[in-house]
Structures are given as C-alpha cells and as structure tokens.
Amino acid sequence: MNRLDKAILFSKVAHEAIGQKRKYTGEPYFNHPLRVMKLVASVLPDDEDAQIVALLHDVVEDTDVTLAFIRDEFGQRVERGVFALTDTPTVEGGPNRKERKKMDRERIAKAEGWIQTVKVADMIDNTSSIVENDPNFAKVYLEEKRLLMKVLKDADPSLKEDAEKFLTSA
Asked: In this predicted model, which residue has the larger pLDDT, 143 or 128?
C-alpha cells in the first residue's frame, strides 16, 4: 500500500472509530478531509505530503492519535504540517476562543506555503456548510477566517482567490 492510500485508510478509520460525523450534515466526517485532499491535489498534484496532511489535518485535534504517531507512520514533514494545522485545544481556565484563534493564526503564519495551502482548502470546505447551516456562528467564523486569510501569504494563489470569494459572498 502506498503512503497516500495508507493515509486515506488511516484518516477514515480514525474518524469512524469515534463515530465522528459532520456537525450540520451528519455525513461521515471522513468526507471532509477527503474533499480537502482533493482540493490540495488540484493545486499541488506532485506533493504527496501535502495531500497526506490534508487527510490527517484533524486527527490529532479530534481523536487520540498523537503527533508522534503521525511522525512515525508518515514522516517529519507530515508531522510538521499536521502540527501547524491542529487548533489550540480548549482547556478549562485556558485562553478563550478569540485568544486561541490568534495563537492559531500566529502559528500558521510561520508555516510553509504548502501547509498554508492545506489550510485554505480546509477553510473552503468548511465555510459553505457553516454559512448555510448556522448563520449566527457564521458571523464569528467568517470574521476569524478573514483575519486568517491576511496571514496566509504563501498559500496557493488560486485557492486563496476561491476562499476570498467564499468569505466576501457570505
């Protein structure tokens, strides 16, 4: 089994093992990272690591999978990408959402362009669902993403343009 197929299977199993579904649609959660991977592949067709990171970008955040496991199975470059894309966790008594999102922006601003490209693909896939299904939260989400777009200077220009359309039309 090649690395990409291994990552597809791993992501699917990791999300299904905890019964994870998409918040608004109830669809299998794995559909999200698969769509993100396809967007990434459309602009980085020769970057297997970027496609693997797209598939794994939520597993550390959402499951018991560790960054060490990601490194051991998929290598340091993939681990670096997953780390950069993993949201700062909510911790009782810890930073509030606004502070956590600022920390996330600061981390991703320092990431390489290919990692920023995965983030933009993730944003594109998430935005339409949130805007369509949760207009109240969409106001907060869209403002967070507008701030995020300002720091994603090295992401793929065509995906950034698509994301900007989503953010301005919503």
From this structure: 143
